[in-house]
Description:
It is built from 14 helices and 18 strands. It has helices at 17-29, 48-53, 73-83, 94-122, 135-155, 169-180, 236-242, 260-263, 266-276, 291-302, 369-374, 397-400, 419-422, 425-430, and strands spanning 9-12, 35-37, 61-63, 69-71, 198-204, 218-223, 226-230, 252-254, 283-287, 315-319, 326-328, 331-337, 347-352, 357-360, 379-383, 412-415, 434-435, 441-443. α4 packs parallel to α6 (169-180).
Amino acid sequence: MRSTGTEMKLYDGGRAPNPRRTRIFLAEKGITLPMEQVDLGALAQMSADYAAINPLKRVPALVLDDGTVLTESIAICRYFEALKPDPPLFGRGALELARVEMWNRRLELHLLFPVSHVFRNSHPAMKEMEVPQVPAWAEANKPRIGEFIAFLDGELKDRPFVAGDAFTVADITGLVAVDFMKPAKLAVPDAECLGLTMRLTIVGCGDAFGSGGRFNTCFFLETAKGTLLVDFGASSLVALKAHRLDPDRIDAIVLSHLHGDHFGALPFLLLDAQFLARRERPLLIAGPPGTRARIDQLLEVFFPKSTTNKWRFSWDVMEIEVGRPTDVLGHSVITTEVLHYSGAPSTAIVLSDGVKRFAYSGDTQWVDALLSVADGADLFIVECFAYSGELPGHITWDVLKPRLPSLRARRIMLTHMNPVMLAHLDEVRAAGVLPAEDGAVIEI
Length: 444
Ligand SMILES: N[C@@H](CCC(=O)N[C@@H](CS)C(=O)NCC(=O)O)C(=O)O
């Protein structure tokens, strides 16, 4: 199969289980790729454009640089396993390879597929994708799922991972299948037990100037407890909509600092919620001391008298005291002051849902406090505005690179890059660091 594309791209399907398998696999490998969302809710997989890429009209699909198209989530995973064998996720050596294959197939045949049959044959939203829906087939699969889960539970008593001592693709299939039980309305084990607690979508990772066509900073975090954004720069409302992320899903926004490229779209979000989206749910905005006054100024500059609006939904501002652990809708947030002038304290943020830890430098020049911000983080996103030399208020690759070994985070990702820095992403990857990409989705 071939398409006319010229740049490697993954056609992704958001929460759907098979695209998720591939994304989690890529995240474990430390591989980032340009992605395009195929909106299954809008049946975009059925469009003529997408059918030209995958005539089977399913996601995921990977288009290689030469236009070759690979489909089937596990085939795509195998492709990347061959290109980047470490860490080995399909096992190594005859016995391990076979064991991983056995468990992956068991988890597909006895868990993922039955859960999918239940979902596709019973959920009203699937009417147009599963034709005809056969409710009796959904019912027939339900007891099989319970039996297999009980069997799996017994197996997992003596070892940490499904196929042995190491995390493999079989664990990814299991994790995605169990997570898929929720929309299928099957009783799910506690999300925190599954370690599936935080998912990041990069809405924007650009600098203030839109370098590389990237949107301003905005990280979209979904946890078992809610949907939180970190920063909301001037282009972030447009970016959310471009990525088909519904602003109404946002429970809270946490701001690192009060520069336009990190909080400038708040008036547009609030007015969109008021007049277009007709939001009813409350919204919490948390930021450094001074946030309330600066949001009011912003509202008045862009939309005079908007501060006197009679809001149809409640929105509150919480000013986070620097250095004091603060609860934001069940998440623990702790900020650290960094070095970047913004008329109020500029901060780095550590946000945890109790299981996973997300850390972000905010905008800053290098300060040693970033070592403790990164310490123990599952993902540390650090700004790296420029490539060479030293700069006031921002980190450069020259400054960051020698410090990478002392950053004790599971994964490190660069953001907020200017055009020169963006031209050196190969060097970043070679150093084992992920470059952020707008639209990338990462299971933390
Ligand atoms: N075996 C394929 C299955 C792909 C598949 O069924 N994808 C679903 C999302 S999980 C899909 O595209 N569904 C759209 C539809 O059924 O119309 C794989 O592993 O990639």
